[in-house]
Amino acid sequence: MEHVVLENQALKRYKLHITGIVQGVGFRPFVYRYALDNQLTGTVLNNAQGVTIELQGNETGLELFLTALKSNPPPLARIDQITQTLLPVIEGETLFAIIESCDEDIEGSGSAVAVSADKSTCQDCLNDMHNPEDRHFGYAFTNCTNCGPRYTIINALPYDRHNTAMADFVMCPDCAKSYYDPLDRRYHAQPVSCPNCGPQLYLKTPQGEDITPVNVTQQTVLQLAANRLAQGQILAIKGLGGFHLVCDARHTGAVTALRQRKQRQAKPLAVMVANIAMAQRYVTGTDAEWQVLSSQERPIVLMNSIPANDLSIEVAPNLDKLGVFLPYTPLHHLLLALFNGPLVATSANVSGEPIITHCDELVSHLSHVVDAIVDHNRPIINGCDDSVVQVIQPRTHDTAPYLIPPSVQVLRLARGFAPASFSLTTPLTQSILAVGAQQKNAIAFGFGSNVFLSPHIGDLFSVSAEQYFERTLTTFSRLYHFEPKWIICDKHPDYAPSRWAQANSVLDANNAIDTSQQRKCFSVQHHHAHVLSVMAINQYRDPVLGFSFDGTGLGEDGRLWGGEVLLTTLDKAERLAHFEPIALLGGEQAIKQPVRLLLALLFEQMSLSEVLALPLPILRCLSPNTLTNLHKIWQNGSAIESSSVGRLFDALACALGLIETTLFEGQAGMAIEAAANRADMLALDPLILVLPFSEGQWNSSAMFKQIIQLITAQPLTAHRRDTIARAFLHTLGEAICVYAAKYKHLPTVLCGGVFQNKYLLEYCLSQLSVQGNQVLSSQHIPINDGGIALGQLWYGIHQTD
What we know:
Blueprint: E1 2-3, E2 11-21, H1 27-37, E3 41-47, E4 50-58, H2 59-71, E5 78-87, E6 95-98, H3 123-129, H4 173-179, E7 201-204, H5 218-230, E8 235-238, E9 243-248, H6 252-262, E10 271-272, H7 276-279, E11 283-284, H8 287-293, E12 300-305, E13 321-325, H9 330-339, E14 343-347, H10 359-366, E15 372-376, E16 388-392, E17 407-412, E18 420-423, E19 432-434, E20 444-447, E21 450-453, H11 463-480, E22 486-490, H12 496-503, E23 520-524, H13 526-537, E24 544-554, E25 560-568, E26 573-579, E27 582-584, H14 588-592, H15 595-603, H16 608-613, H17 624-636, E28 640-642, H18 645-655, H19 667-681, E29 693-694, E30 697-698, H20 700-713, H21 718-740, E31 748-751, H22 758-771, H23 788-800
Parallel strand pairs: 3-6, 8-15, 10-13, 12-16, 19-22, 22-23, 24-31, 26-30
Antiparallel strand pairs: 1-6, 2-4, 2-5, 3-4, 7-15, 8-9, 9-14, 10-14, 11-12, 12-13, 16-17, 18-21, 19-20, 20-21, 24-25, 25-26, 27-28, 29-30
Helix pairs in contact: 5-9, 13-23, 15-17, 15-18, 15-20, 18-19, 19-21, 21-22
């Protein structure tokens, strides 16, 4: 609070209400400083709707303040809306003050405050941690208003200390002085603390027994952890949004043990490195990739790996990409400085279940996996995984410069990026909840002018995963005082979110609404929602041509779709074209054993005797009797069929000998992309494939007959295998571009998990740009099922309004 001397001009007083990311980001001290700089009096406070400011001063000072507010907000802030009301002047006012937060809602339904995502440690805090004269020296929980935990520690809004995981930590006099000084960068930094008053680290056994030596510093605890890692041990380390399982990325024994204990046979593992210099020992990248790697969000970035390095081959076997990320907490910075090497850091969870956030839960489920635990006593209120991204940078196939600026494709929206939010150009009249898909689930909701997307929740195939989904719903309902009037779900009635939506709303048999009831429900087809998600992030409302390619989704005809071209509007999607449906011989078994998919494609083009005679190594894993039985299943038409492009990737990877059994989602796509990249790198001569198209359908089995002929015509060398993989991607890309050329009057949308294949996506974007097709960007949201909820919400917004 400070006295202000006003110049002798006519005074005016305004009330400003500001929404957006304006709490927990140093917004009030920013307002305080600019008010003093411009000789303004009044107050600023947080409330459940954002920040409210009353300002009094002369017209010049008020204009300068508003200009600064809009053009130069704090680094982590985002202003969505400013409403301004003229008030009567208060005679004799000489102070500008930051006053206590108000928990009461102002007019409107729901809280308009956007909860800030957690942010990585800023340079100022790193400097404090490395300064022996600073009380934060070597402290693993150093933070300020420009960095540190936000979403993962918040219980309720407004974002004040008593509403966070720091409520039980009483500040020491030094921290209190910083906390209450409006000119200090730790002013009202809710997690502010130091070794004298804040969270502490503990070294524990796999059974949770505390073995921390008495009266040691946090650096000593981390040194003990680093020593264990150097010995090849596997540690569970508590971070911002959950525990990581950590080991030396160069120690093959440790990485192999981690895979065996966690039963993660082949899925690539992410590697945390101390700095850019260390990263450059393992990956190469463009300027855009290095920039996003070192951004304050600190995501895992998929980058090209350097073949000759000292990482264990078990980190990312048979792949040309490596997921790398930089330390994002003080704990990580301190540990990596002590260890001085790359660390595997993967989410601590039972396969298919949510990330573990409590030590007791870790001991219960993963004590057999770890050799020790590094725990701390700051609770994780809301779990949050690491974000995963890749940089899309399309170019022509000669030496021409890039056609389209680089963009960040989010594969998993989580820590650093989520909760995500944006403002609508037209406010909603009803509050809406969209519950997302069965896999890579996230939820979205909207009210007023606000749209929010939750962090990644995950696949919902277990009871604990469904419980995590429901906890996330409860969390956002509590944070935003949100009560939906409409619920939007997937058309698949057996998806867990769809079951939840139907159990918590009213929907009649014709998908019609009983307006006398509350919480009404709509469903939207999966691939329609994929296209709508890209329209939503662009706030686009006119028709588009959508290519929605993924693994599976229930179609409008009750069959499994996944290779769809949709003329898409806000309320419907007309199926213009699709890929030939293929039989899933054995249902789910066909996805796990892709040789069954390959056989289904071959049976469409060849007789059983011709298939039996093929010299394909992968067919030797099946007996002639099994092949005959599978042919009978195909012949009698009893198998479920799918038009999925994702299943074509599985079949090709199997035919080329890249995979035999699918061990994780996307495995085939990664292997094919790596092969295509090798073909480009070695400048191998191209092969031509033909993908016939007639009557709205691509004949994928005819293309696969050509592929088998190429494979069996001569020995399948590594070079020939890679060339076939590249030809497959080029052929898919050409099919997309040729079809899109007929619809140049409409923007094109490329969506669904298949377009996570960077090679295919960059090829398509480059060719579409050359031929003059506008493509709506999908950056900022996942192109996979993680974006489905946003598409559902966009559908709901335009049905309810």
